[in-house]
Amino acid sequence: MFRRAPEPAAANDEKPGFFRRLRARLNRGDSWLTTDLADLVRGREIDAAILEELETRLITADVGLEATTRILDDLRKRVARKELTDVNALIAALRESITRILAPCAVPLVIDPARHPFVILVVGVNGAGKTTTIGKLARRCADEGHSVLLAAGDTFRAAAIEQLKVWADRSGSAFAAQGAGADPGAVVFDALQSARARGTDVLLADTAGRLHSQSHLMEELKKVKRVLQRVDASAPHEVLLVLDANQGQNALAQAQQFREAVGVTGLVLTKLDGSARGGIVIAIAQRLKIPIRYIGVGEAAEDFGEFDAAAFAAALVEGAHGGPGQAGAAP
Ligand SMILES: Nc1nc2c(ncn2[C@@H]2O[C@H](COP(=O)(O)OP(=O)(O)OP(=O)(O)O)[C@@H](O)[C@H]2O)c(=O)[nH]1
Ligand SMILES: [Mg+2]
User: Fold this and answer.
1) Which ligand is nearest to the CA of 164?
2) Which end of the chain is more exposed for a tag (fewer CB within 10 A), N or C?
3) Percentage helix, strand, coil, to 5, in the chain?
4) Rounded to whole angstroms, how far apart are CA atoms 331 and 329?
5) Taking a C-beta distance cutoff of 8 angstroms, is the pair 245, 271 a contact?
6) pLDDT-based confidence at 67, cuts 50/70/90?
């Protein structure tokens, strides 16, 4: 008797859809890494000149020197061992090498039911995609059966409160806000107490991205964190830093700053559907070693998914045209 292959877990059901979207939107279809590579290689051995071409592509796509060096060292060793005889072998090796860098950062966010409410403080610079990410995450938590409360901690702009309210309505989440100009510490303090009283599972706190200065912003975030800890010493249970992938190497500097100020525990990389070529994700994984929880590939709630190292490397290296049976079809 043959055993049937196990059914895929329910949680994986959404993956093919999101993966297809990632493939199609990252680099808008064509892989900047490997387009024309076959033409370049045709009739030649994989030699130093081809590896140099790849190196240039990696560097110009924000992968950074450190990760590029690591990838190239890997490929050069394999070329020396005569393992990479054709372009397909080279592309597969590149995919594997990138996956190895990304894999330690592919650590999903787990809502610990012992933390009730589980408090997620969302931070990042102006326009990075914080409020949108909260909306998408609220929808995701609600779909998983969690009750959610959104706290409008960005009181700097009146429009920010409205924007969050729209996402709360859309995702069926509760909403806690005070007027524009209110103290963000007071907003999150009240929101956490209210979430406790209602027995809410997840509290998502929005914050401002721009204040009078960067140091004002960091001071405000530190204060918000302290205030949360007054209600629950273990909170926040996740400090989620939202980074716009189009910021390139600047995103690394931002991460460093937020990490020092408020201790980032997870990252969200947004706008990978934009002009970003995705290389910065490799640089971030190599340099920061902070878990990448989610990625955003568009403005809608469904343009958002967990970060999967193998799937991301496949989308990057193979573009939208990688066939089934390649890394993309991996679980
Ligand atoms: N294309 C694309 N747009 C996105 C993505 N995530 C967010 N956006 C858009 O980026 C813009 C800024 O997003 P917000 O969520 O308002 O950013 P924010 O960090 O809250 O900005 P501030 O409140 O000003 O600090 C909005 O127009 C979003 O729709 C994404 O993954 N892809
Ligand atoms: Mg916002």
Assistant:
1) 2
2) N
3) 55, 10, 35
4) 6
5) yes
6) very high
Q: Which residues touch 319 (CB under 8 Å, ≥6 apart)?
A: 23, 27, 29, 30, 31, 34, 35
- Widest distance between CA atoms in the chain: 70
In this structure, the dihedral spanned by the alpha carbons of residues 147, 153, 159 and 164, taken in order and rounded to 10 degrees, is -10
- What would the pLDDT profile of 127-159 be if each residue is shown by its tens digit? 999 999 999 999 999 999 999 999 999 998 889
N- to C-terminal Cα separation, the chain: 25
For residue 200, the CA-to-ligand 2 centroid distance in Å is 22
Instruction: Please tell me if the CB atom of residue 178 comes closer than 6 angstroms to any atom of ligand 1.
Output: no
**How crowded is residue 191: how many other Cβ atoms within 10 Å of its Cβ?**
28
Token pair 């969050």 is found at: 164
